Amino acid sequence: MQQPKRTKYRKQFKGRVHGMARSYTRLNFGSYGMKASEPARVTARQIEAARRTITRHLKRAGRIWVTIFPDVPVSTKPAEVRMGKGKGAPEYWMCRVKPGRIMFEVDGVGEELAREAFRLGAAKLPMATRVVGRLL
After folding, report:
1. Which of 10, 5, 8 is nearest to 91 (CA)?
2. Whole-angstrom Cα distance, residue 132 to residue 124?
């Protein structure tokens, strides 16, 4: 799973995911990409699950790029703990994904194979996605 090597602060505010993506809205590396259609918070586990699914369906043919990185720590308190006593410890890492953001790119495979791989990978993510491509 991905996580930053070091951060300026251990804990962050939850924040909101609003507005449209301004960067990574076009394909930079591959011929086909998976684009987010709605805002969501994507965890490192979900990113890794989608990446594995896409890679396995492509049978390691072609090349895959992951263009999102979980850099926001999410802290939780243990179960059945009373209110107060400060914020909980960081539990996992997540990434705020805005609509229009390209999350995965592939190159070196056919359109049908890429579409099916992205369809299977999108099932692991908490938002609606669509396939975009240079050749579409």
Report:
1. 10
2. 18
Asked if 34 and 67 touch (Cβ cutoff 8 Å), the reply is no
- Cα separation, 71 vs 4, whole angstroms: 6
What CATH number was assigned to the domain covering residues 32-133?
Answer: 3.90.1170.10
DSSP string, 96-132: EE-TT-EEEEEESS-HHHHHHHHHHHHTTSSS-EEEE
Q: Per-block average pLDDT, block size 10, for the chain (136 residues)? A: 92 94 94 97 97 94 95 94 94 96 96 95 97 83
Residues in the chain: 136
Q: What are phi and psi of 86, to 5 degrees?
A: 85, 175
Per DSSP, the three-state class of 48 is helix
Return d(Cα 2, Cα 94) in angstroms, integer. Answer: 9
Can you say how many angstroms the Cα of residue 29 is from the centroid of all Cα atoms in its chain? 17
The domain limits of the chain are 32-133
- Give the pTM: 0.92
